[in-house]
Amino acid sequence: MVMHLEPFAGGGSLELGMSAEDIATRIRRIRSPRYVEYDTGTAVLDRLAWLYNHPNVPRPPCSLIYGDTNNGKTALAYKFVRDHSPSEDSPDYGKRPVVYLQSPPFADVNGFYDAILRALKAPYRSTARAQSKWDQLLVLLGAVGTRVVIVDEVNNLLVGKVDQRSMVLNSLKSLSNELKISVVALGTQDAVRVFQTDQQLGNRFEPMGIPRWAVSNEYAVFIGRFAQGLQLKQESSFRSKELVGRIHRLAEGLTGETCKLLALAAEMAVQSGREVIDMETLDQMPWVMPSERRKAAR
After folding, report:
1. pLDDT at 12
2. pLDDT by residue (tens digit) across 44-96?
3. Which residue, 153, 223, 233, 146, is CA-closest to 185?
4. Residues facing residue 9 across a β-bridge
5. 158 φ, ψ (degrees, to nearest 5)
6. What is the CA radius of gyration of the chain?
């Protein structure tokens, strides 16, 4: 099927003869995850690489990386996992030097062990005793050559019983000690409070914050780099302070929200035929700012 659309008022038009399949292919590409370098992201990845390359010691260094929701923590973790996963033609293919998992939705030591075993794609019985699961995951992590374990959403540990929270936190510490590997915890500002409940953990897990963006030249450069990967046919003017400020305000300075907003704007630009991200595109977007979403949920 071929779509013939009228020129969009305000400039640019969809190429005549562009098929629905062509549009769908471009939109799938726009929606695909992509990573763009930026200073804070590079600093986090450098920290993870330092932990990865650290020699075996009795008390390996660990990190707590924290920041607001949707500010790039998980995207950085995924990139680090991708960059350190052996390729199919590598003799180390099948090894898991970096293991990423999500913390259970509330403090639960059995759920925590299950999450690690699921991340390893290992068969296990959910009804098995916690000690049995612990023994199994220690053997498996050693067998696949794990050097770093990344646990996301550790702020979830604030939900649930205090004794279960303590057991999960002790498990994180014991995991690092027994296997002589680094553990990285990711979470919101609340995660700092979780780890400060235990002095040893507070000292062991060195905190590293990911701040929100300020309206700056660096933010404009980040937006421009991200937009390049969206492959619109018209150049967007990210030198405009007004446009950059508007994007910053809508995304509230959050990395993940900025990327989501730009991808949605690019999708609309393709569908309309305008092929550019500008004030008019942003005006037409069905966008609700992150803080407004939270208010609506109350």
Report:
1. 40
2. 999 999 999 999 999 999 999 999 999 999 999 999 999 999 999 999 999 99
3. 153
4. none
5. -70, -15
6. 22
